[in-house]
Design brief:
Layout: E1 3-5, H1 7-15, H2 20-25, E2 30-33, H3 34-40, H4 47-60, E3 61-64, H5 78-89, E4 94-96, H6 100-108, E5 112-114, H7 116-125, H8 131-145, H9 151-161
Parallel strand pairs: 1-2, 1-4, 2-3, 4-5
Helix pairs in contact: 1-3, 3-5, 7-8, 8-9
Length: 162
């Protein structure tokens, strides 16, 4: 299954050294619009994180130039509209994003959606991580890396992973 990715899940999975999960979970292509790459490698990124993301983009991803991106919503960023444009044009069935509005519009447009937490859950259910490892990774994201989720979502994720 091919996917198209927004920036946040790649950033957060990079921070916890779990980017390799994507290639193992999704056997098709991982599309990343160049507008998303620009967000990923913005000035000020820590050098080790930049190296990790650069290597992942070069080795695992199919970078896509989006000419004339469709505008799905004015409230979406250029990168978000590019993600949805790639999903539509490449007939990708799954969008990887943590952004609430992007996820909502992707669902309305008929695409499946998964985010960082969903990747950890799929990895645990698929035997790539134990439930404990996935919970520890989620805790690290929240406590050390500013991953923001509601307590309800956090509790649901933990209960699924236990």
């Amino acid at each position: 299954m091919s996917i198209v990715s927004d920036a946040a899940p790649l950033i957060f999975l990079s921070k916890v050294k779990q980017l390799p999960l994507l290639a193992r979970l999704f056997k098709g292509r991982i599309y990343v619009p160049l507008a998303v790459k620009k967000e990923l490698l913005a000035p000020g990124i820590p050098p080790d994180e930049e190296r990790t993301l650069q290597a992942f983009l070069a080795e695992q991803c199919h970078l896509v130039t989006v000419r004339k991106p469709m505008v799905f919503a004015n409230a979406l960023s250029l990168a978000d509209n590019c993600v949805l444009t790639v999903a539509r044009r490449r007939r990708v069935s799954l969008v990887l994003s943590d952004d609430r509005l992007l996820r909502k519009i992707a669902l309305i447009e008929g695409f499946g959606v998964v985010g960082t937490i969903g990747v950890l859950i799929k990895a645990a259910k698929g035997g790539l991580l134990t439930g404990g490892q996935a919970i520890s990774t989620l805790d690290e994201l929240v406590q050390k890396h500013g991953f923001r989720i509601s307590t309800a979502v956090y509790s649901r994720a933990r209960s699924v992973l236990l």
